[in-house]
Amino acid sequence: MGIEPKGPADWSGLHIAILGLGVSGFAIADTLVELGATVVAIGQQVDPGRAQLYDAIGVVPQVVPDEEAEAAALRSAAPQLVITSPGYRPAHPAIVAAGEAGLPIWGEVDLAWTLRSWKTPEAKWLAVTGTNGKTSTVELTTAMCRAGGLRAIACGNIGIPILDAIRDPQGWDVLVLELSSFQLHYAQRLSPWASVCLNVADDHIDWHGSAAAYRAAKAKVYARTRCACVFNREDPATEQFVRDADVVEGARAIGFGPGVPAPSDLGVVDGVLVDRAFLDSRSEQALELVTMADLQSVRLSAPHLVADVLAAAALARSVEVAPAAIRAGALSFHPDAHRIEPVLKRDGVEWIDDSKATNPHAAQASLRAFPSVVWIVGGLLKGVDIAPLVEHNADRVRAAVVIGADEHPVLEAFARHAPQVPVVAVPDGDTEEIIAGAVRAAREHAQPGDVVLLAPAAASWDQFVSYGQRGDLFAAEVRAQLGGDADHDVDGVSSAGH
Q1: Do both 246 and 323 map to the same domain?
Q2: What is the per-residue pLDDT across 364-414, written as a single tens digit (0 to 9) for each?
Q3: Domain assignment present for 495
Q4: How many separate domains does the chain show?
Q5: Pairing relation of β-strands 451-454 and 373-377?
């Protein structure tokens, strides 16, 4: 029979199956053992170091060969509750088996929420999701909160697991959560202080089963929000998510965008980011937060990064961070590696690493910052149609260099929507050969004033260990082929399009 605990006192002796033996799975197991539950941990692999950690807490991982075996192990365990790591898709045989048995299925987010005041006073949770920009926004929000004197930590899909954060003996004032669509799919209890969906575009359709299911998962970030539902005025879907959300009475809708803000929004006026939401006189006044010149000095002036700053500022202002601390936090921030990261400039051509652009929405944010691009594109498309991205940017792409396993949809998109653009398909090979070929092809087509942009619009797992490896190899190869150091250092992203 399934059981759903209500608080920290309800777990002793409960028989629980955990799906996944990675970072999240171990954090779940470690927490449940401390609560006195009986734990069965199931997965297809566990690295040796983590296996030792499982041994230390008295849990023997059940390592099985495939998904069907995971389902069989779960049935044999006959648990009262299943808690899954976020990677287990809804159609996974083990998840299906749990549903058929009538078992409650929790994710790590709901477990952490249920235990939020187990050891320390409850923190305020600021929840961040979106197809792109999550990590930057979480890190910016955390920096702003810390600049305002709050004890804040980034957790969830980045930083430390949420379960580790809530068990920190010193406690936190604020938890800033990066939440993926996978985590939100399983979230049924989370009630954040403030929440934001930065943007939404088709992604992870292979995991969710449909674009509608993916969007429904993203929309769940607003459910039960207590203070502020922050949405993107340039993305109507996010505003609709807020309109449709069942929130705690009194929660406000707070918009952000690049133009002059209405009352209850954040925006930009004459080169200054301003707040017209978190002040009593918002119908007549706005609070200055940070200037565009400030953001330019720390590589945050690209349009999508300005949006991230505005969203982060809204979250931080919801927990009463002062405007001066918003500015200080923004100026202390350093953008993620491989996110529109300058490599060098040589002979009038800039080389930019945006390997973190792993879907079309992220690539569009990068492409629109530059008027003339030699575009290195391709990888694992995850079921997403790349044709609209190609069509939308046909007039700014001087040439395309196509890499990756899913090259045929990319080549077809260029043939149909941008037949005038020269296209080079790089043959498959080892990782170094692929990147070397891509850089050579880009050099052949780039002209002074161009940007050679690695913005693949696709995941990296087909040919690389990660987007980080893809970006590192690209930067190293650019420097190798162009002779090491640039003619002059590139301190920030090109001002084109800003």
Answers
A1: yes
A2: 888 988 999 999 999 999 888 999 999 999 999 999 999 999 999 999 999
A3: no
A4: 3
A5: parallel
